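Run log // design_07
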């Protein structure tokens, strides 16, 4: 799973095996080591049973994004590329959350990205 943060935008990109796990209502988690003596930065995507479609929580040393079970299963079992949500933060601000299936790059060898989804733009 890849994480991209830019301003008030958060984007997760998942490989085929990771999307399958989410479709099975499992959690996908990654950690980034920040150096000796520092706790790892952890980011995860998990499935919740609440009515809200997408939630984001700041946790000690990480970010936890969650999606509803219905949304997870529908996304994993269809050709739907992504899930987009705009979460109101107050003061006329919002957090844009985008969760996407990770496609193979067009300029790389497919062997370098064996778990990515086939790119629909590839010929």
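design_07 sequence
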């Amino acid at each position: 799973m890849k994480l991209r943060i830019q301003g008030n935008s958060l984007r997760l990109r998942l490989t085929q095996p990771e999307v399958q796990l989410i479709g099975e209502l499992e959690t996908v988690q990654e950690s980034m080591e920040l150096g000796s003596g520092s706790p790892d930065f952890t980011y995860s995507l998990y499935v919740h049973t609440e009515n809200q479609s997408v939630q984001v929580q700041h946790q000690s040393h990480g970010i936890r994004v969650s999606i509803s079970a219905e949304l997870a299963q529908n996304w994993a079992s269809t050709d739907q590329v992504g899930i987009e949500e705009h979460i109101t933060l107050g003061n006329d601000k919002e957090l844009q959350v985008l969760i996407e299936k990770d496609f193979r790059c067009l300029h790389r060898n497919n062997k370098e990205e064996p778990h990515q989804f086939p790119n629909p733009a590839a010929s």
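The mean pLDDT is 89.
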